Amino acid sequence: MTALQSILIAILQGATELFPVSSLGHAVVLPALLKTGIDQRSHEFLPFLVMLHLGTATALLTYFWRDWWAISTGVLGIGDPHDVSEARRVFLLVVVATIPAVIVGFALEKLVRGLFGSPIIASAFLVVNGGVLLFGERLRAKGNRPVSSLTKLDALTIGCFQCLALIPGLSRSGVTIVGGLLRGIDHEGSAHFSFLIATPIILGATVLEVPKLLHESVAPGVFALTAIAAVAAGITAYLSTWFLMRYFRNQDSWALAPFAYYCFALGAVGVGVIKFLY
Q1: Nearest to 176 by CA among 271, 266, 248
Q2: Over its length of 278 residues, how does the chain's per-residue pLDDT go in tens digits?
């Protein structure tokens, strides 16, 4: 992978990780469509993507620093008793929503890795992702509950939806927002909680993969290039978060539809072109 390719993939990942269009799907499908020659099954490729996710996690921590500061101080028992109680409640919700993906991820790790390098499968699931987004809009529960009304059952439901994102082509933010909509949470609240629970998942994946990257036999300069790409991904992710939070605040009717149609188009093109090329 050249330096230019690395930076472009980083910008793409930073933009698509938070948008409900599947960053992993794009990372697998676009190189195949553009015939970049990138070996997606290379022992360096997955750790490279995980480092980009570290940049994304840093962006999320920066954007939502007030939430994480309140959660951290509350868990430690610092502050007003009411604030401490609320912070511990939110922390528990994040934990409950994170557990399903951790369990399923460990159980199906080998299967997921096998799917990871298949552009045709990722393209097909991009089409499925578009269907999930429209499904969520059509069947969303009545009412517009704020994120402050989340219960443990809501968090568990959203966490179960998050497990779907282990498949390349299914968007983590997309399926978790849909999970929130089905529980009656509005778009902004669903996105807010989706971005909060993304942080421990992304950081957990990074903790598992970074040591592998450090101990692999990689060419000189690869790790430095990966670090630069992670910074580019982080900056892009921060800007994406800023845009999306405002978008969902102002668009609470069929807000996921444009992303669904985009996934339909890219997935269909991917299936058709990749079948023809390969």
Answers
A1: 248
A2: 677 878 888 898 888 889 999 988 887 787 777 776 666 556 566 667 777 888 999 999 999 999 999 999 999 999 888 889 999 999 999 999 999 988 988 887 666 666 666 788 889 999 999 999 999 999 887 767 878 889 999 999 999 999 998 888 899 999 999 999 999 999 999 999 999 999 888 887 777 766 666 666 656 566 778 888 889 999 999 999 999 999 999 988 889 999 999 999 999 998 888 777 66
Q: How far is Cα 127 from Cα 11, in angstroms, rounded to an integer?
A: 23
How many domains in the chain?
1
And the tokens for 141?
Answer: 């529960």
Q: Which domain holds residue 42?
A: 3-277
